[in-house]
Write a structure and sequence with these properties.
alpha/beta, 17% strand, D-Maltodextrin-Binding Protein, domain 2, 11 strands, 5-stranded mixed sheet, 6-stranded mixed sheet, 12 helices, 2 domains, disordered N terminus
């Protein structure tokens, strides 16, 4: 009888210790990282660059799964509905988890996930025009839209982050543009080169070769101060428009993921931000300086952004 009781007690201890041991060993296998964007764009680049250094630190792989479409709701829904075991993760940005809620594309937001941190901030965004548009400066854009508000077509993903960029840009500069749905970054580039749209908000790293060759013109960068990695591109503030809009990236897990796992990922992200080679990769790839906000500060920043964007909900929803 004593042996049976002892055996039962040992089994109970093993069962209780099992999850804790698994969490302590995390990560012990590959993590599925889901992103709501196509390959070769800024989100894809940031996630793959982060994954490279995550593997260096932990020895475990991050497998990037691209799930574009639906303003990233396909991707965010997949993560939200996954097992909260620490092996499915979202690498997105405010467009995926805040703007989609504001625009009504999703009935959930940052409160429905375990927010880990802000591993990076896109300070490499610019507004560009196509060569065919005949627009190369802000003054030319304003003049053209003043003559005919429907003459300039702004390409975006309706209900997404770049849609909100276009609304804020128009509000702060006075440029009235016709907003059309073109899709994600890769589709915007194709539409610009094909002359189907005239203006787009996009990461400079994705179009720098076209800018250098003269196929695209850059109107400005929506940073408070110049991102020096973008070279001699002026801010819109310098040009008299109070248009400032940075886009934090977000690492998030399904709701209910163990806090120890979320905190460990946050610690790893902080380590990655200190690696010089990582900074060099960001600079060379998308002209992006290193930025990192830990779990508490990152969530506070995201909540402030959400509160600010909510005022544009009606405009975003009416355009869908």
């Amino acid at each position: 009888m004593k042996s049976a009781i002892l055996a039962m007690s040992v089994s109970a201890i093993v069962l209780l210790a099992g999850p804790a041991a698994a969490q302590g060993d995390w990560p012990s296998r590959a993590i599925n990282v889901i992103i709501g964007a196509s390959p070769c764009g800024d989100t894809d680049f940031n996630s793959r660059t982060f994954a490279k250094y995550f593997e260096q630190i932990t020895g475990s792989q991050m497998v990037i799964t691209n799930m574009p479409g639906g303003g990233a709701t396909i991707a965010t829904s997949a993560v939200r509905d996954s097992d909260a075991d620490g092996y499915t993760m979202l690498f997105g940005h405010t467009g995926h988890l805040i703007v989609t809620e504001v625009s009504g594309l999703a009935d959930y937001g940052i409160d429905d996930f375990e927010i880990c941190c802000i591993p990076a901030i896109d300070q490499g965004a610019v507004f560009v025009t196509s060569e065919q548009s005949g627009i190369s400066t802000m003054d030319e854009l304003l003049a053209k839209t003043k003559e005919d508000p429907s003459a300039v077509i702004y390409g975006t993903e309706l209900g997404g982050y770049s849609h909100l960029q276009g609304l804020l840009f128009s509000q702060e500069t006075g440029a009235q543009m016709r907003i059309v749905d073109t899709g994600s970054a890769a589709e915007k580039i194709a539409s610009l080169l094909g002359g189907r749209i005239h203006v787009a908000g996009i990461a400079y790293g994705a179009i720098q070769d076209y800018h250098t060759s003269g196929q695209m013109k850059v109107l400005g960068q929506p940073n408070q101060e110049r991102n020096p990695l973008l070279g001699d591109i002026p801010t819109f503030v310098e040009q008299g428009a109070d248009f400032v809009m940075n886009n934090p990236y977000i690492i998030a897990f399904p709701k209910g993921t163990d806090e120890a796992i979320v905190n460990k990922m946050d610690e790893i992200a902080a380590q990655i931000a200190e690696i010089p080679e990582y900074a060099n990769d960001l600079e060379q790839g998308f002209r992006q300086p290193v930025s990192y906000y830990g779990r508490a500060e990152g969530l506070e920043r995201l909540q402030a952004i959400r509160s600010n964007y909510m005022q544009y909900g009606e405009a975003l929803q009416s355009a869908r």
